[in-house]
Amino acid sequence: MKILHTADWHLGKVFEHSQVNFSLLEEQRRILEKIVKIADEERVDVVVIAGDIFDSYNPPNEARLLFNETITELSKQGERPVVIISGNHDSPEGLATIKPLTANHGIIIHHLPVSTEERHIRGRNFDVEIKGNWLRLEKGGESAIFFLLPFVSETRLNEAFIGDNLLDKTLSYNEKIEKLISKEPPFDGDTRILVSHIFIDSGVEAGSEKKLILGSSYLFESSRIPESFDLVLLGHLHKSQRIGERIFYSGSIFPMNLAEIERSPAKYVSIFEPGKSGFSYEEIEILPGDYVRVREFEDLESALREIENLKTSLVYIKIKRPLTNHETLVELRRALRENLLGITFEVPELVEGDYFEKTDLESLTDEELFREFYRHQMGKDPDDRLVEVFIRILNEVRHEAH
Question: C-alpha angle with apex 27: 93 to 21, nearest 5 degrees?
């Protein structure tokens, strides 16, 4: 039985700190089309999507449409089961709304940490039985059992324990998770697989993951995963990685910010094939490591001189000097159009005797403070219209805060 593992699509994401409001949706669309093609060419039996389908609880309609189209294609109109869990960026209730529309296509969405659902899905060439968090898939004479555990906060975990009569206030987060996943399955199967959206203690971050932990909370110890699981397929960490012998993160499908470009530019899906003597697996590249690049230039003019070379991929540009020429910036952005992920300028360090060290900032009005800051950053006075807009937005924010 071939299993394709992917996660962390973050549909609807705008590239972080891009200064150009770069939407990743079209890049995500191309990559998801590639994943569908891989699933077909590799004759995958089941697709596992381990959370963070969307980037926010309320994604744009274009992102919802792309998700619906992709999972329908992955399921081959009901010929191949697709198993989906929610991540920390997803709205569990939002995903639950489409469950009645997808079940007949063999698309299983598990959105809560503890479920009492019982259902039987008979596909064209597969059979799925669901009992609570457990799912049994039988296809081509082989069977696999999945324990599905979406992202679970302390609040939802406590609610789950109350509903499942497992509540023990003395247990830690790790102990509660361990207790959940240590239950015995209600049916037999050839392979047992844990699917979750969780931060494993020895995992390596790529740099764009939303922080789940304060101290050690929400950090799950890999040693607590029962040996009865042959495979552990996870979402949350954006760097593709293997932890120990049986724990895998597929990683995100696209770098989400500058740190991720620098740490984890290449992206993959993984294909697993469990057998009697273990499992085989293969990583298949869905985004080359040189497709998204970071380039540094002394100034905007230097970047413009290399504009033709910059058009061969998506590029994040770092300028080593402060922004002083808005016209050249506009020209650069126009020349790169859809290739410019983001651009940053070096902020000059304050030196002894600098205006901001000598001035009592509290004595300045909002307008004076903004004008002085703008002069310091840009080397010229701000336009009066810009100042007016800034003051209006500042007042609106203050009003909402109160």
Answer: 80
Residues 229 and 322 in one domain: no
Helix, strand or coil, per DSSP, at residue 208 = coil
Q: Where are the beta strands (DSSP E) in 152-253?
A: 191-197, 199-200, 219-220, 231-235, 241-243, 247-249
Q: What are phi and psi of 27, to 5 degrees?
A: -65, -40
User: What is the model's pTM?
Assistant: 0.83
**Residue after which a domain boundary falls, among 272, 287, 302:** 287
The yes-or-no verdict on residue 162 having pLDDT over 80 is no
Q: Do the strands 292-297 and 134-139 form a parallel or antiparallel pair, or are they unpaired?
A: unpaired
Q: Which residues constitute the domain of residue 387?
A: 292-401
Q: Would you state the pLDDT for residue 3?
A: 97
pLDDT at 328: 84
User: Whose CA is closest to 218, among 133, 151, 148?
Assistant: 151
For 52-99, what is each residue's pLDDT tens digit?
A: 999 999 999 999 999 999 999 999 988 999 999 999 999 999 999 988
pLDDT > 70 fraction of the chain, expressed in percent and rounded: 89
Distance CA(45)–CA(24), nearest Å, equals 29
Q: Domain containing 66 — which CATH number?
A: 3.60.21.10
Region class of 219: left (phi > 0), else alpha (psi between -120 and 50), else beta: beta
Predicted local confidence at residue 401, as pLDDT: 54
Strands, sheet with 340-345, edge to edge from the N-terminal-most edge strand: 292-297, 314-319, 340-345
The type of residue at 102 is T
* Alpha-carbon span 157 to 109, nearest angstrom: 19
